[in-house]
Write a structure and sequence with these properties.
By secondary structure, the protein is α/β, with parallel strands linked by helices. 48% of the residues lie in helices and 10% in strands. It has an eight-stranded parallel beta sheet. It binds phosphoenolpyruvate (PEP) and manganese (II) ion. Phosphoenolpyruvate binds next to loops.
């Protein structure tokens, strides 16, 4: 399904990416107002805060619900910032709209559930509000696109995606693995869909926010949604990943924004060179396959098996080491040679079974 999109038309400064900032949760009127004023003083135009919080386990802070919505109204009145919150059910949508929330987002646990997405989409029919859909917790691009299609199908044209990383059992550096190839592929599939990066939920740690913001910008993402709290250590949810408005301002001030479009002749020259190398590469591969087919013929005539495991291991080890010497990750070389070997085996099978 082709998405029918309109520009989001949300405020942004020219020198900075599109920023939505605010606490993980709206905890109290004072916390919301203090954080909002500090962010607004730093030039932020869009304020986020969770009103309903999807907690992994019961017993955590699940949000103040409707009680917190007037605080968001007050943010808008006193600072002029637009307000954004997460909706997970049609009831959330109704309440958020009733209190004039300007931007809605759908969380990662909800976008993983097509029933919940359809219910949300139905509740948004006839409404014109920008909606962002976070990637589902599992690394499934089709599920993410499906969630976006459902919302778009309800007539929401001001649509965006939020990349917040993917759950994994094996947590190392990141709270949620970024798996950048997934948002990159989303951009390739739907080029005019804005993608916002959420370094807070990917990193799960304050010190990872700056490098993740930079990486997102280097990969051409359109904006950032960052958790910022007036007193992060005391936050009622996601304390480890929140930064003060001051720190956020500093992080944003050191971001290097590179040109998305090619600005010099240089890059097209370099791309031409890449194309030439790729041509040569494919010709060499074809030559390798021709030799491989000859070997297949030999194996057939001498009653040998196709798979000669010791030769295969020798190739993987030798080429991995060679790659290393040339500054290429041996695992990458291994993957390439595994794919080449697989195709060689297929071609030899054809010959042997002729
Ligand atoms: C959030 O934005 O605070 C949140 C709960 O995010 P996610 O849905 O990405 O976990
Ligand atoms: Mn959070």
């Amino acid at each position: 399904m082709e998405l029918e999109l309109k520009p989001l038309c949300l405020p942004s400064d020219n020198e900075r990416p599109f920023i939505i900032a605010g606490p993980c949760s709206a905890e109290s009127e004072e916390q919301v107002m203090t954080t909002a004023k500090q962010l607004s003083d730093k030039g932020c135009h869009m304020f986020r805060a969770g009103i309903w919080k999807p907690r992994t386990k019961p017993g955590g802070f699940e949000g103040n619900g409707e009680t917190a919505l007037p605080w968001m109204q007050q943010v808008k009145q006193e600072t002029g910032m637009l307000t954004a919150t997460e909706v997970a059910t049609p009831e959330h949508v109704e309440l958020a709209l009733k209190y004039g929330i300007d931007i809605l987002w759908v969380g990662a646990r909800t976008s993983a559930n097509p029933f919940a997405m359809q219910a949300l989409a139905d509740s948004l029919k006839g409404v014109d509000v920008p909606v962002f859909v976070k990637n589902p917790v599992n690394p499934d691009l089709e599920l993410w696109i499906g969630a976006l299609e459902r919302i778009n199908g309800a007539g929401i044209k001001r649509l965006g995606a939020i990349h917040r990383g993917f759950s994994s059992f094996d947590k190392k550096i990141y709270r949620n693995l970024p798996m950048w190839q997934i948002p990159i592929e989303l951009k390739r599939r739907i080029p005019n869909l804005p993608i916002v990066n959420d370094p807070s939920h990917i990193g799960g740690r304050r010190d990872l926010i700056a490098p993740l913001c930079q990486q997102a910008m280097d990969l051409g993402m359109d904006g950032l949604i960052v958790e910022s709290h007036c007193n992060p250590d005391e936050a009622w949810s996601d304390a480890k990943q929140q930064v003060t408005p001051d720190i956020l301002d500093y992080i944003l001030s050191i971001l290097v924004i590179r040109e998305k479009m090619q600005t010099t002749e240089n890059i097209s020259q370099l791309r031409k060179q890449i194309d030439e190398v790729d041509d040569a590469f494919i010709e060499l591969l074809a030559k390798r396959m021709r030799i491989s087919r000859e070997i297949g013929q030999y194996k057939k005539e001498h009653g040998m098996t196709i798979l000669q495991t010791s030769r295969y291991s020798e190739i993987l080890d030798k080429r991995g080491a060679q790659g290393s010497l040339c500054g290429i990750d041996p695992d990458c070389i291994k993957k390439i040679f595994e794919a080449i070997h697989e195709e060689s085996v297929n071609q030899q099978m054809e010959i042997i079974n002729k």
